[in-house]
Amino acid sequence: MGRYRTMADLDPRDAAYIAGLIDGEGTITLSREHRNEDRRLVVNIASTERCLLQFVAECTGCRKITNKSIASDRHTPSFAYRLTNRQALELLRQVQPYLRSYKATRATLVLDRYLALTPRNGRYTASVKQARQDFEALFLATRKIGKTSAGA
What we know:
Layout: H1 12-25, E1 26-31, E2 40-47, H2 50-60, E3 65-68, E4 78-84, H3 85-95, H4 103-113, H5 126-141
Antiparallel strand pairs: 1-2, 2-4, 3-4
């Protein structure tokens, strides 16, 4: 079995702060890197304040801050912090109790179902593939509390 990238255990105060950043400026989504590829879990936080993202990177031990492209000289430079797959799952496990937006529902769905519906070898049986598609549809439909078939 291969080794997964790890993430540090967060102090509860830091977990709550990072949850606030995710609620306010972040996304929890399932995204494709390439066409014909299965969707993967992505947690992203965007900010014009690089120091906020550096704080998150230092707390988690995962340093993935990128510059976002700007369309005009009038736009403020912005940055993005991004985690995928197991690191994103671990971050959600630690911040989920503190999330307050619809992202709490998304985090709960992911924590409850993502690993069981994501075979490590990428080989899906017909039943798991259908369950995964159903999960993705439910997850992506979860946009605002009270506006989803999940009843959240």
